[in-house]
Design a protein that fits this description.
It contains 17 helices and no strands. By secondary structure, it is mainly α. Helix 3 packs parallel to helix 10, helix 6 packs antiparallel against helix 7 and helix 11 packs antiparallel against helix 17.
Length: about 300
């Protein structure tokens, strides 16, 4: 255990607070869930075939609940490092508003329920993919990779890339090239997204002993990685258009979004403020890149859905 974590004394982690409704919702990482649900819904919308509106709503709900469950289990496991990181110290478990075992039970219950309900509402393939995504995030990323390797985000990025596959499978019951491409886009989006965050929050990760790339390889190497993965992402985002799975609307949108993302990546590459551990409130290129990356994925997937609906 990192010294900073031990010195923190894990104040409040074993607290017995029952928590408010807001605390239990925060345990599900709603901001992350929003993006996960959206990409899953787009996977469902662009799939050939038809799903009854009620079953479609249940599918979206199951993806949301499954993602939230994984987030709750992640918070339970990471409660020690959350306690010493400025960004996460106020989360319900380290703040003592929800007891760890209650959070774990809550997460496991929701995870199991989401998989079972999705299997009953759609098919076993979609439910199995949801189960894999939950296990991948909680076991492969959270318990295995996050504290052991600077490539945690690269390998662990697959956890957030599963929803388009789940949505597609719920409609069709089988995979195809397009949902795999969407999965790959989210996979390659994850490193520049999180590494941009880690550049302006690297002091937090260092204090908690989490081997994020800026901590182990330095900010300069991280900035190069952000640029490299942004180039790969831009090229990959055009693949659905090049391969004929999307039309001109998507292609133009993807090209424009990639150009703006590349602009942010170039600014990150040229910047050196993050090496000084500056305040998180500063308008760093890395912070601007992180914020844009969120909009990027929402707009890109929206363009694909609109393109398929009007095409």
């Amino acid at each position: 255990m990192p010294p900073a974590v031990a010195e923190a004394g894990l104040v409040g982690i074993e607290g017995l607070g029952v928590g408010s409704v807001r605390d239990w919702c925060a345990l599900l990482k709603p901001r992350v869930v929003t993006l996960v649900v959206f990409t899953g819904a787009v996977g469902m919308l662009v799939a050939p075939g038809h799903l009854h509106p009620l079953l479609a709503a249940i599918t979206v709900l199951c993806i949301a609940v499954g993602a939230g469950a994984a987030g709750a289990i992640n918070m339970w496991y990471d409660r020690d490092i959350d306690a010493v990181m400025r960004r996460t110290a106020s989360r319900p478990i380290p703040a003592g508003r929800i007891a760890p075992q209650e959070a774990l039970s809550f997460g496991v219950l929701l995870a199991g329920a989401s998989v079972v309900v999705l299997a009953l509402a759609t098919n076993l393939a979609a439910a199995a993919m949801l189960a894999v995504s939950i296990l991948y995030y909680t076991i492969v990323y959270t318990a295995w990779l996050k504290r052991r390797t600077a490539q945690n985000i690269v390998i662990g990025g697959a956890a957030g890339a599963f929803p388009p596959l789940i949505g597609w499978l719920a409609v069709t019951g089988h995979l195809a090239p397009l949902p795999i491409l969407l999965c790959a886009i989210v996979f390659f989006w994850t490193p520049p997204h999180f590494w941009a965050l880690s550049l302006f929050a690297h002091a937090d990760y260092a204090r908690a002993g989490v081997p994020m790339l800026p901590v182990t390889a330095g900010a300069r190497s991280t900035r190069r990685h952000v640029f490299f993965y942004t180039v790969l992402l831009g090229l990959l985002s055009l693949a659905p258009w090049w391969l004929g799975y999307a039309g001109r609307l998507y292609g133009i949108t993807a090209a424009a979004l990639a150009a703006v993302f590349l602009y942010h990546a170039v600014r990150v590459l040229a910047d050196s403020q993050d090496t000084a551990g500056v305040s998180l409130t500063r308008d760093l290129p890395a912070k601007a890149c992180f914020k844009y990356s969120i909009s990027y994925l929402f707009i890109l997937f929206t363009a694909l859905a609109v393109d398929r609906l009007i095409g």
